[in-house]
Predict the 3D structure of the following.
Amino acid sequence: MTVGMILPWPIIGAVIGICLLLAVAASLIPARAALRPADRALPFTPRRRRDPHGSV
């Protein structure tokens, strides 16, 4: 007895298309942040620790 293999090509194509769209959307978010001009980025300023003994 031979068994035929049936592949649901429309469903496979839809899943691949959705995965591609999700991958592009997921890569656009960090790309937008990386391409933002540097003058709009906030500078890093570390906080000073408060000394419990009052000395500097």
